[in-house]
Amino acid sequence: MRHVNTLGGLLARQRMDAGWSQEELADRSGVSVRTVRNIETGAVESPRNSSLSLVVAAFQAAGHFEAEYVLRDFTDRNGIESSAAPSGRSAGGSTPNGVRSGDDHDRLMGRKNDISRMCDGLHRDRWTTLVGPGGVGKTKLALAVADRLRSQFAGGVFVLPLGETSEDHDEKAVWRTVCEALPIEGSPGDGSAAMRRLVVIDNIEHLQTSAVRACQRLLADFPDLWILITSRHAVAAAGVKTVEVRPLSVVDAEQLFLHRAQAACSDLDLTGRGSAVTEICRKLDGLPFALEVAALRLRSLSIDTLLEAPVRQIVAQPSVAGLPHQRTLVESVTWSYGMLGEEQRRLLHWLSAFPEAFTIKDLLGRPDRDTVADDFPHLVDIVSDLIDRSMLQVCRGSEYRYSMLGHIREVIGSLQ
Ligand SMILES: Nc1ncnc2c1ncn2[C@@H]1O[C@H](COP(=O)(O)OP(=O)(O)OP(=O)(O)O)[C@@H](O)[C@H]1O
Ligand SMILES: [Mg+2]
Question: Would you say residue 97 lies in a domain?
Answer without folding.
Answer: no
